[in-house]
Write a structure and sequence with these properties.
globular; three-stranded antiparallel β-sheet; alpha+beta; 162 residues
């Protein structure tokens, strides 16, 4: 009887974990701090939908993120990522600004006009495989002092490649 209860408990906990679903964001739903800003920074993730690959005991969702501003030079004052769960965007992390320079190749957090900046190895890494939605965001200030933003959603799947 003890073995049956233990087996049932393990099975239930694993099945709940395997079936977790974080939902799909509504098309134009944004976090409050982005809603109030004009979108002036282009953000692109490649690919848009990312399948994991297992290497040793870790799963990797390999992608890159690129940013560009066509209209003017912009100084980035904040950047980070949101995760979508509980039917809303939740701040995952705001990164230190020095990481923008390191990962994207900017100098003093400044994006020059029409200059693309790319973080080639912007990978999600985890010990378990699960899908979900994230959104990279960037907030900056133009030379005229206007606060602007850029963002792009990215979908990760639980469809293992290997």
């Amino acid at each position: 009887m003890k073995k049956a209860i233990l087996f049932l408990a393990i099975f239930c906990s694993l099945s709940m974990y395997a079936q977790r679903n974080y939902g799909t964001p509504i098309q134009d739903e944004l976090p409050e701090k982005l809603k109030i800003l004009r979108k002036a920074i282009e953000v692109n993730n490649f690919p848009k939908t990312i399948d994991p690959i297992k290497i040793d005991n870790q799963y990797y969702w390999k992608h890159n993120t690129a940013i560009l501003c066509k209209e003017s030079e912009i100084t980035i004052i904040e950047f980070g990522a949101y995760l979508f769960y509980n039917n809303t965007w939740n701040l995952r992390k705001s990164y230190p600004l020095k990481e923008l320079n390191k990962n994207f190749g900017t100098k003093k957090e400044v994006m020059k006009q029409s200059q693309p900046y790319t973080w080639a190895n912007n990978w999600r890494i985890d010990r378990s495989v699960f899908g979900g939605w994230a959104m990279w965001y960037f907030i900056g200030v133009t030379k005229k002092g206007e606060k602007v933003c850029g963002y792009e959603k990215i979908e990760t799947t639980n469809s293992l490649l290997n």
